[in-house]
Amino acid sequence: MPPSLPSLRRRLRAGASGLALAVAAVGVATLPAAPALAEPVPDYCAPQGCHDILPPGQNGSATLVEILGHQAFGTRPRFSSSQLDMYDNLVHHYDGLTGEGLDDFFLDATFGVASGDVGRRYRPRTDVTITRDRHHGIPHIEGTTREGTMFGAGYAAAEDRLFLMDVLRRVGRGELTSFAGGAEGNRGLEQDLWRSAPYTEEDKQAQIDRVAASGERGRQALDDVEDYLKGVNAYIDKADRGRYFPGEYVLTGHKNAITNAGRIEHFTATDVVGIASMVGGIFGGGGGGEVQSAIVLANFQDRYGAEEGLALWHDWRMENDPEAVVSIPGEFPYSGTPEDPVGEVSPDPGSLEYYDIVHDEHGSAASGQAAESTEPLAATAAEPEDPAEEFTVEDLTGEQREELDTMVEEGDLSAAEGVFEDGVLPEGLLDPRGMSNALLVSGEHTESGNPVAVMGPQTAYFSPQLLLLQELQGPGISARGASFAGVSFYVQMGRGVDYAWSATSAGQDLTDTFAVHLCETDGSTPTTGSRAYVDSSGDCAPFEELSVTNEWKPTVADGTPAGGYTLTSLRSEYGLVQSFATVDGTPVAFTSLRSTYMHEVDSIIGFQRFNDPDEITSAEAFIEAAGDIGYAFNWHYVDDRDIAFVNSGANPLRTEGTNPNLPIDAYSEAGWSDWDPDTNSAAHIPKSDHPQAINPDHIVNWNNKPAHGYTSGWSTGSVHRGGLLDTRVSALIADGHDFTTASLTRVMMEAGVADLRAQEVLPLLLEVIDTEEVTDPGLASAIEELRLWNEAGSLRREPFRDAGYYSYADSIRILDAWWPLLVRAQFEPELGGDLYTELTRASQIDESPSGAIGGGSPGSVNQGQPHRGSAFQYGWWSYVDKDLRTVLGHDVEGPLGDGAYCGGGDLAECRTILLDTLADAVATPAGEVYPGDAHCGAGAQVCADTVIHQTVGGIGMWPIAWQNRPTYQMVYQFSGGR
């Protein structure tokens, strides 16, 4: 076990130098000699074939001393940021990238640690050895027993992410504010979770028991979780006794820095279920939104009549657009609108009332009073002079060490005040979103003849990251890669002995909305205020109330005044209540039923199989294993011979006539086949009906439609960010290019700085404008600059690192300002204000790197500036594209009706609209387009785009350049196999 820190008296008398050394000792201590390691695991990586990276760094744990050192002097714990600069540098230096050069931007992902690269080797118990490399501190966990391997995984996870794990389990319980403070962001996040995945402890245990009873793999999975938690809890106990636990426990009032009073709660299996529910809901959910879809339909029919309105709704819905960007060939029909639908319902106009789960607010929850704002500390955002050289508390000057020592001696925590005043995780984290991309090229088109893959999940940017890196070697398990903190008993995306795999969020429809009749248990007349419903047996049953009460008070980390509330979700057999309304005058509740609700744990079997080298022996075996994952993901696979794609998900088999795109009458023939309301179990479509392919020429996916026939969300049409990848890879294949790991990485990175609107839609805008000469000199100049930007690649990229400006900066500003103006002017006159507004609620008009343009007003040019990296997933680019091609007389498959919207279909009128809105955009100051925020001044274009890591602890990171790429990224090629 790590050595105990000196007593408090000795630490205070030793001075800051002693404190720093004590902190360092915990990080480098070597435990009793471990038994000789087993023979190296076979590894089939090709030369320059196995790489990965996960910024900012592996170490996501900081003691109180390290947090104070960071906040006061800008130090960071060792290995907390060691991968950030490598990751960021690729965007500036991908031109001319070679295989040898990949080492400058990625870690070596071969198995094991070279003898000269061992930084620390220790044994938390006798049947497991953990070896961390000296450059990045990645844990390589090798167990002589499976139990020991799982114990080691839990122990290492707690070392690297304990406080984050605690935050995630509190979110899973709906108890974030009582743990981390009442900041508005914390309230919003726990409310989002409690709306979508509220569970009792009994619910969670029932999931565990069901999986454990499902067979040998289920029993093994439960054993693995229990052994993993033993490792987590063993570390908690040791860190508590040794006083090297994360300092955030002191800042949030759960531990006392002087007396060590307070307790860090042990983790349980139900905590794992809560974390899995949250992660699965964010990245593996899909469907829903049927009430808004019905409102849009009603608006179409109000404006155009029943028949034409329905036809136009289908066109705009784009559930199966023939021009949609797809990843694999073939037709895979799923969840389309039936020809003869049954059981469709729609809320009566003006009757919809959204259900508010927040009750009994008091204190700051009722008053809205927030913490007194503190000045942001420069240390949290400052980039070190040489990011490759980590600046730790050990590197402080004598004077700085003395100051740090005084802080600890006097209990002065003021340097860390307010670190969580914006919340520990961003509000809206649970909102549905597209994430991740993948590029795979078959061996037929590679230099070596072996397939190449560049892939990974986009999970946003956090400090520390939600994911962690690890290697697991033990009986029945051999893998390296990324796992979500708190559920890292298996590698979830990474590599095995001779294969690698990754996922992108698929988002297919796993969720339906049902209309249930309201009633009163005493037989009186129901209203929309009634809180009972007619169940499947015809009885009037009260909604089940799932409640959690939270109380908070000011802490060092979050000064939000004391307050509290109770969150109550209403649950029925048909799912969770989202809203109330009337349907043909009858009071109803609209409920949301997700096929994976009550079944989040089921997917553990698929991940277990991915990690088992005896299980995954081919692309076919991988596709079979992916069928055991209920989350909506697109899985990508590569080995030395094959590439493969398969979509996973618990896709409910709907009864004939069911329309999953609109609310369903709960008492009609529509619904799910073989549905059991007691367990929310139902029949699922066969595995063979999921989109899948082995060895097409190439596979690319950026959360686009996996295959034709597989119903997609709103506006999934002719223009999608997946095309940024596909056009580049397809063009290189057509030119006879032989891909390498380096060349495919270059493709990924160039697409990752491309502006989708500029590449795909701007040429059409210019084509309309070019039908006549532009006589205004200012407009003509702007148009020419836009044309040059498009011809240069449509990239949002600095000419060199830290330039502080983009090449073609003014063209970028103009397009950012122009897009919302032209979209509104192009469509609103024909659609009308009401319908246009409802459509913007179904599908946002844009998602630029600086944020979702609109800010609640469809015509606003202001950017949201969330600094999240991922961009161009959702927007109206397909609508603009199809409409402009219609105006120009081009062929359009799947048009938006029989005519055009821009200028009423008149080319000259459309051109006038484009020029007028362009003139407005040209005249819009940068300060309005990029209004500034806590990180950036008004008009700071590059800063507005920058990626900023959301701090989930006491250690912040410096901003990095905008790049639309996976957070955890893998580059793989295998030259042989078993």
List strands and helices in order, with pairings.
Blueprint: H1 8-28, E1 45-53, H2 64-73, H3 84-93, E2 107-108, E3 118-125, E4 128-133, E5 139-143, H4 146-173, H5 176-180, H6 184-196, H7 201-212, H8 216-242, H9 248-251, H10 269-283, H11 290-304, H12 306-317, E6 331-334, E7 353-354, E8 358-363, H13 364-367, H14 398-409, E9 437-441, E10 452-456, E11 462-463, E12 467-474, E13 477-484, E14 493-495, E15 499-505, E16 511-519, E17 532-534, E18 540-542, E19 544-552, E20 563-572, E21 575-583, E22 586-594, H15 604-610, H16 619-626, E23 633-639, E24 643-648, E25 664-665, E26 692-694, E27 698-701, E28 708-710, H17 722-734, H18 741-751, H19 756-769, H20 777-791, H21 809-831, H22 833-842, H23 877-888, H24 907-923, H25 926-929, H26 941-945, E29 950-951, E30 969-974
Helix pairs in contact: 1-14, 2-14, 4-8, 4-10, 7-8, 7-10, 11-12, 11-22, 17-18, 19-20, 19-23, 20-21, 21-22, 21-24
